[in-house]
Write a structure and sequence with these properties.
Strand content: 5-15%
CATH topology of the largest domain: Rossmann fold
Number of strands: 10
Family: Belongs to the 3-hydroxyacyl-CoA dehydrogenase family.
Helix content: 40-55%
GO molecular function: 3-hydroxybutyryl-CoA dehydrogenase activity; NAD+ binding
Pathway: Lipid metabolism; butanoate metabolism
Structural class: alpha/beta
Protein name: 3-hydroxybutyryl-CoA dehydrogenase
CATH class of the largest domain: Alpha Beta
Shape: globular
CATH architecture of the largest domain: 3-Layer(aba) Sandwich
Strand order of the largest sheet: 3-2-1-4-5-6-7-8
Organism: Desulfosporosinus orientis (strain ATCC 19365 / DSM 765 / NCIMB 8382 / VKM B-1628 / Singapore I) (Desulfotomaculum orientis)
Largest sheet: 8 strands, mixed
Oligomer: single chain
Number of domains: 2
């Protein structure tokens, strides 16, 4: 599919990141969102990252210009009609994804591969909404996409071998390390990470250690770049809560039950860095401990 066109549905943090790595790999990209300001913000974010890479000598200006030239803004799903692949990267909501893919199924060529970046919703469940389940696949990138090397490829019950092969080739051309997962809730990484993160939350609630010390222990004891609370704030507590809820609904296992304190933070609107407060307080411009969420 070298030189072909890929539409990215959703110009937020994840979608813009996917658009960036796709363009840097030489693909023509149509970056879609429901409004022009949303798409413009996504492209501005890409340009900001690439500018930094050029300033640091990690990228030539000509390469940056070439990548940006491959990204075309879009506010109409009709622009997907001649794309060879569409990658959806919207909010983790089944009904929203279902609606988008039903529209794309009518617009796109029968040969177009439809991929979802869902982090926990079963691929087969979304694929049931379209008439081409053999060409429907999971393509789970990790945040931030330009930095994180992994892409989980998830096949639904009816996903064809050819769709898996083509999708894997595309992801690897984007510079990703790929793994193939069965279609189970949470796939590989989020299933393991959800249970891990819940145990960190339990340690906090039982008073084993403070949030800061749990993060420090994991960073320096297990060599993780971020502690579980820091990472949760970075990704968004709403995302973490939705993933936990989906896993618990799928497995009916207490290991994945959404944490009570996490649920309270979601209800209060403290969703991490993007809202100024999460497990930590960022309102001063620096990360500071919160004492009102610890036991």
């Amino acid at each position: 599919m070298e030189g072909k066109t890929i539409m990215i549905v959703g110009a937020g943090f994840m979608g813009a990141g996917i658009a960036q790595v796709a363009a840097q790999a030489g693909y023509k990209v149509r970056l879609y969102d429901i409004s022009e300001p949303a798409v413009e913000n996504g492209i501005a974010g890409i340009k900001k990252i690439l500018d930094k890479n050029v300033d640091k000598g990690k990228m030539a200006q000509t390469d940056m210009d070439a990548a940006l030239a491959l990204i075309v803004p879009s506010t109409s799903l009709d622009d997907a009609k001649d794309c060879e692949m569409v990658i959806e990267a919207v909010f983790e909501n089944f009904e929203l994804k279902k609606e988008i893919f039903q529209k794309l199924d009518e617009i796109c060529s029968p040969e177009t591969i439809l991929a979802t970046n869902t982090s926990s919703i079963p691929i087969t469940k979304i694929a049931a909404a379209v008439k081409r389940p053999d060409k429907f696949i999971g393509m789970h990138f990790f945040s931030p996409v330009p930095v994180m090397k992994l892409c989980e490829i998830i096949r639904g019950i009816k996903t064809s071998d050819d769709a898996v092969k083509v999708t894997t080739e595309i992801a690897e051309k984007m510079g990703k390390v790929t793994v193939i997962s069965k279609d189970v809730p949470g796939f590989i990484v989020n299933r393991i990470n959800a249970a891990f993160r819940n145990e960190a939350y339990r340690c906090m609630e039982e008073g084993v250690a403070t949030i800061e010390d749990i993060d420090k222990a994991i960073k320096f004891g297990l060599n993780h770049p971020m502690g579980p609370f820091e990472l949760a704030d970075f990704v968004g507590l709403d995302v973490g809560f939705n993933v936990a809820s989906t896993l618990y609904a799928g497995y009916k296992d207490s290991r994945f039950a959404p944490n009570a304190t996490l649920e309270k933070l979601n209800i209060s609107g403290d969703l991490g860095r993007k809202t100024g407060k999460g497990w930590y307080d960022y309102t001063s411009g620096e990360k500071k401990p919160r004492t009102d969420v610890q036991f």
